[in-house]
Amino acid sequence: MTHAYSRRTVNEVALAVAAAALAAGAVVITLRAHPPDPLAIAIRQALIICVPIAGGIYGLRNPQTRRFGIALIAAGFIWSLTALGYTDSNPAYSIGRVVAWLIFPFLLYLILVYPEGRLRAGAERSLYGASVLLVMTSFIGSALFVEAYPLGTPWAVCTTDCPPNAFLILDAEPAFMDVVRPIRELLAGILMIAIVVVLIRRLRGANRQRRRQMAPVTVTGIGCCMTLAAYLAVREAAPDSSAVNTLGVLWSLWIPGIAAAFFIGLVARRMLVGQMLERLSIVFSAEPGATQLQAELAAVLDDPGIDVLLPDGVAGRWRTTSGEIVFGAMASDNGRALTTITDGRVPLALLVHDHALRDDDELLHAVQALILSWLRHAQMRRRLAGSLRQLEDSRARLVRAADKERSRIERDLHDGAQQRLILLRIRLSLAEELLATDPVAGRKAVGDLGCEIEQALEEVRSIAHGVYPAVLSDRGLEDALRGSVSGSVLPVHLITHRVSRQPPEIELAIYYVCIEALQNVQKHAHGATAVWITIRQDDHLTLEVRDDGAGFVPGPAPGGLRNMSDRIEAVGGRLLIDSAPGHGTRVLAEVPLLRAAGRAGENGRLA
Hints:
It comes from Solirubrobacter ginsenosidimutans. The protein has about 600 residues and is of the alpha+beta class.
């Protein structure tokens, strides 16, 4: 980027230096001819050379206006050669007079292609071709047959003592030039008027924003064409009139005028595009719906027919912002342009717009980027809403599971430990009575209560173990799992990698998911020969439970798998079930860790 920028700067400086040198040379040559108003002519020469080249240098900075820049620079360089028309040298004078007409194709090109940067098919291309043909054949080509060039021109000061034409190929001027000369002037005038009509129609047919951009160059272009037509007509009708020289000088001043208008148009365009993008950015930041988006785009871009088509779910079918179903090809049947908005290779929307927007690549790309951002933002909102719904559903299931677990504990306490304690209370009362009446039998009854108390304690321990295993709290995840899987029917290979203590809610979630996955293997993994459990810790705590059983086709998660997923999602993780018939099942749970994992060493053993 820096190298390209430096190279561009060097090129611009070189062009500027060349323009200054050419302007200085042209001024020196002009002043040596002792013109009647030397200061005015010198300033005019400098302006006609330097202003187009300066505008061209500015145009080269933008790829979209590069052609304009080249044409302006060419016009400035060519005009510098017209200073040769002020010399007494026969060949130099002839070159200066002929080269002057080469400027016109470049000026006409600038006028006709602005601001799109290309000639439109039809009238514009035909008029430009006819004008270039007329200049090359009837004006420049006539230099081969005329003895002297017409007087009353802005690029010569001689009157009766002008040097003869150095390009004359005959001994004398043929008579048919008396016929060719008025015909070419007439054709040139007709072409100028036709070009003016085309420019006016283009300006009237443009929308408001486009008209602001086109106006400077179009107005100066109209003035240039009308002045040239008047100059040719007056020169043919009254060649000795002072108006001829006045109109010629006025026409030459349109050259820097067009260059200045081009610069003004570019600046106005940049300001206009900036204002439009600022308005659109404000619109998009408000998260508009599709209908509001269409209305705002139509207002900002001054294109009432603009629309954003979104996929309807069927290939090739799209839905307009008003809800109408259309096919992609139908959207452009009414003469509208169609631009596909993609995210990589996937088409996300179709932008139906005026063809004028397609001619402005910079604005079109900016609008595409804004719409793409709007689409992505809408997708993110939908995904976020879906995630929130899933989170709410998960929380609801956890609440239901917690209520169910509480009910189970209450039932177990009521039906087990509570009943046994009530029975102990009754038997204790009986033992108390026996001690009063039969001490020996009473002491035996009290001794028998010890077994009942041990059974009650065991039931309480069993219930507590179902709530939070003591070994998990005391010794951590690895020892808790090793103790739980030791009684498995299938061989269990438990491998851990750098596992350290984590928050209780994370350890409990991983523990229960592992136990439930192991129980599922023992219940459903027909043909399994072993189970492999791997726990890894880095920036995530990862659990993998894998078997070599029959496998299954994963579908909507049943209750057990749903509970496992809820447990992991409750601590910010995710659960993946990977299975296929004949290839076993793999349960993968990942939980992100909020702090750096401890380096407890790597341990791999067979449980």
